[in-house]
């Protein structure tokens, strides 16, 4: 895994993106040379335009899920993903190609470049399953055999992370009983140090998956020896943050929140985020105005007025505000006055409501909340005060999510399904804490791109 802009990416995906950018960029330069017969002719126009074209096309493909997925795709899933990417990328590529200043001679090669793009996308789709399973692998040794160690293995297999291999589990005397398969537990000779074991297994990383207890002592000096010899050593918090994009509550301490990296705020960061929010909201309102109009008409025809509803939610700093959404439930959905969790198959939802929820059209009016400053484009989803009070009393660190503005979409929304219980709220909070800890403009853009992908592929709901 590589960390870029405070966010972790699979090494294989990063290298694949760079290779495809270079292939597109180099292919375009070769095409230009073929037409003009000279390398220098029109170079000042061709090189910048070719680079911009390659980056934009690969970024679009990445946003549509061609390079990364939270699970190892089947051939059918990979084929569908490639076809969807080609379907969207080729028209956009033609438009981008026409807008960029290529020079007179090169402007006639749009068909050739589009074919080059299609070839790159198809080749990436066909080769991805093979390359992710054989290249850039990291060999991992897990210290511990108890509940935490079992959770590490589960996290690496559900979903499968093809670039990370667990070579075995090393028991630590005095800690809890083994909960992993006996065949996976290592039994090194008594005279072998941890460094000896790691070297013999060609280990790249060590994950410490135990908790300090009486009677059990971690081999700290041996772990230090491994780190000094270039073997990466991670605790549970860092492991889950890197692999799952979560800050796990069961391995979280207040001191880690205080002294650890992240959770940064500041005037410059706030100003940049606000400028991005306003610009993105105005652009989306302009682009989606026809969709919003048709949605209002459809809601009115099925269940009458009002087509919008306002509901009190908790925002930044615990302040309440009125969120605006398209009405997706029947008008008497809570006629008894008791708040209820929303769920994916809620029988209070209308037929139009199911459609606009699945496509997230019901969230579009919240763009006005963004313009008013109550919400951001990306952030933790705002909850109702009734549920906030309940969750704050039951879940540690729940109030941390209110240190930033709530979002129209969020990291938890593109990583987890509907939250319909306290247990679901715990899972989503772990993603929200990751966002609060690592939020940057880059992560916001990535979440918006993920939201587009989720809507287009139907991989998730709110």
TrEMBL record:
Residue ranges of every copy of the Bacterial sugar transferase domain listed in the record: 273-456
Topology in the lipid bilayer: Multi-pass membrane protein
Keyword field: Membrane, Transferase, Transmembrane, Transmembrane helix
Main location: membrane
Listed Pfam families: Bac_transf
Transmembrane segments annotated in the record for this chain: 12-34, 46-67, 79-100, 106-127, 278-301
Top-level lineage group: Bacteria
Subcellular localization: Membrane
InterPro entries, per the entry: Bact_transf, EPS_sugar_tfrase, Sugar_tfrase_EpsB_2
UniProt similarity note: Belongs to the bacterial sugar transferase family.
PANTHER family linked to this entry: COLANIC BIOSYNTHESIS UDP-GLUCOSE LIPID CARRIER TRANSFERASE, UNDECAPRENYL-PHOSPHATE N-ACETYLGALACTOSAMINYL 1-PHOSPHATE TRANSFERASE-RELATED
Identification of the protein by name: TIGR03013 family PEP-CTERM/XrtA system glycosyltransferase
Annotated organism of origin: Viridibacterium curvum
């Amino acid at each position: 895994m590589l960390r870029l802009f405070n966010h972790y990416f699979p090494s294989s995906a990063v290298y694949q993106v760079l290779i495809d950018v270079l292939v597109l960029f180099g292919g375009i330069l070769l095409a230009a040379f073929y037409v003009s017969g000279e390398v220098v002719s029109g170079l000042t126009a061709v090189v910048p335009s070719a680079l911009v074209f390659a980056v934009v096309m690969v970024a679009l493909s990445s946003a549509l899920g061609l390079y990364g997925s939270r699970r190892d795709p089947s051939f059918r899933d990979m084929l569908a993903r490639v076809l969807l990417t080609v379907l969207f990328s080729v028209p956009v590529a033609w438009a981008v190609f026409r807008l960029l200043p290529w020079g007179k001679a090169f402007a006639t090669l749009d068909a050739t470049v589009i074919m080059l793009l299609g070839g790159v996308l198809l080749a990436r789709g066909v080769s991805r399953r093979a390359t992710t399973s054989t290249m850039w692998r990291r060999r991992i040794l897990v210290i511990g055999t108890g509940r935490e160690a079992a959770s590490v293995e589960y996290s690496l297999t559900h979903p499968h992370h093809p670039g990370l291999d667990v070579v075995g589990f090393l028991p630590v005397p005095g800690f809890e009983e083994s909960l992993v398969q006996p065949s996976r537990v290592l039994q090194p000779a008594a005279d072998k140090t941890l460094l000896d074991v790691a070297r013999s297994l060609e280990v790249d990383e060590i994950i410490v998956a135990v908790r300090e207890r009486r009677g059990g002592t971690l081999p700290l000096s041996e772990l230090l020896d491994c780190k000094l010899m270039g073997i990466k050593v991670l605790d549970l918090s860092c492991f889950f943050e890197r692999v799952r994009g979560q800050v796990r509550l069961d391995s979280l301490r207040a001191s880690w929140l205080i002294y650890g990296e992240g959770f940064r705020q500041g005037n410059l960061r706030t100003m940049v985020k606000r400028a991005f929010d306003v610009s993105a909201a105005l652009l989306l309102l302009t682009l989606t105005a026809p969709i919003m109009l048709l949605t209002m008409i459809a809601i009115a025809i099925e269940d009458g007025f009002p087509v919008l509803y306002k509901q009190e939610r908790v925002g930044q700093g615990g302040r309440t505000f009125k969120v605006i959404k398209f009405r997706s439930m029947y008008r008497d959905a809570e006629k008894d006055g008791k708040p209820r969790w929303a769920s994916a198959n809620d029988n209070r939802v209308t037929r139009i409501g199911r459609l606009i929820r699945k496509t997230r059209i019901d969230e579009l009016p919240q763009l006005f909340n963004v313009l008013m400053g109550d919400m951001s484009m990306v952030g933790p989803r705002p909850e109702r005060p009734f549920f906030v009070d309940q969750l704050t009393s039951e879940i540690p660190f729940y109030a941390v999510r209110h240190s930033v503005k709530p979002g129209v979409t969020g990291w938890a929304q593109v990583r987890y399904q509907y939250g319909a219980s306290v247990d679901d709220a715990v899972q989503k909070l772990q993603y929200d804490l990751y966002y609060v800890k690592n939020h940057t403009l880059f992560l916001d853009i990535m979440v918006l791109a993920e939201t587009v992908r989720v809507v287009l592929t139907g991989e998730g709901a709110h």
